């Protein structure tokens, strides 16, 4: 066997392996919305020397004992079966468990204001079992007394609790920030005035956007992979990705500020449909056509509306809406562009012009993506 023939066989085997990897990714990447790990939202305010914190959280994940720092999806945890059972419990059944969990957990959630502030659990509000396709959001209300001379406070978020969005209420220029588990906030003036500089807000929301994609945005990843698979030429890929991100950013901003309101039950089946259409077109079309451009723009608009939902849930900081929107959009875009770049450098740059690229990479991967998108479409319309 000559060196050149051996190299060709190695490259052939590598192409097949890459195709299988892409197909496997598409096959297993079904976004089970009921299992997504989302950041906790903490709204806090100070009045008459007392601090009140309202925590909107996925209480079942905490009660189950999951380490949320390492999870994007609760199904990745060996405790996922316990979590699913807890989600089926009525509020009266799970509330005692939440209170028991909070007794120990509050020792790690610390507030300091010229010394430690002792927190107590005042109320627990757990919604009835409803739509099991989304996590149930419970509310814990904590209270604590501040020293009379306190002018600022810091909040430390416990290890193992995932991310948290801190939002100060009832003051001018309120503080809004994002903490990872184990981090401590900056000193927050009790009377307000700690609104972050535009670049700080942008950076915080960029991290939120980047964290959103692996946790809840697998459908967006599959769509851009579908764009990648159309043609081995670079400029059609760049044009499609640019148009998609532009449309996505537009409706993301409009949806987040409330200028456009579309129910998620309407948007999500349409998002799945765009994945099917772009993947099926890859199988029958070899180059970019005008209708593909229209499809990509419309898809970007729809995907942006879907992305606006978690951002609306998190909220935008008063006085810093624009940096937050730009940061979140940039965070999402950075992950999607990184995926496309890795796919291009790892697959197309080497094998894109090989005569069997479509048959061994583009078509099998597109077919798999179409099947997954079709499953999501049926699931969201019927199941």
Distinctive features:
single chain; alpha+beta; 6-stranded mixed beta sheet; 4-stranded antiparallel beta sheet; 11 helices; 13% strand; elongated
Task: Tell me what you see in this structure.
By secondary structure, this protein is α+β, with helices and mostly antiparallel strands. The chain has two domains: 40-195, no CATH class; 204-381. The protein is 55% helix and 13% strand. The chain has a six-stranded mixed beta sheet. A four-stranded antiparallel beta sheet has the order 4-3-7-10, with no helix packed on it. Helix 1 runs parallel beside helix 11 and helix 5 packs across helix 6 (218-228). The chain is elongated, with a radius of gyration of 24 Å. It starts with a helix and ends with a helix.
Task: Please provide a brief summary of the model.
By secondary structure, this protein is α+β, with helices and mostly antiparallel strands.
Taken in chain order, the helices and strands follow as HEEHHHEEEEEEEEHHHHHHH
Domain unit count: 2
Structural class: alpha+beta
What percentage of the residues does DSSP assign to strands (E)?
A: 5-15%
Shape: elongated
Count all strands and give the number: 10
Task: Name the strands of the widest sheet in spatial order.
Answer: 5-6-2-1-8-9
Percent helix range: 40-55%
Stretches with pLDDT under 50, minimum 5 residues? 26-32
Tally of helical runs: 11
Mean pLDDT: 84
Radius of gyration: 24 Å
CA-to-CA gap between the ends?
A: 55 Å
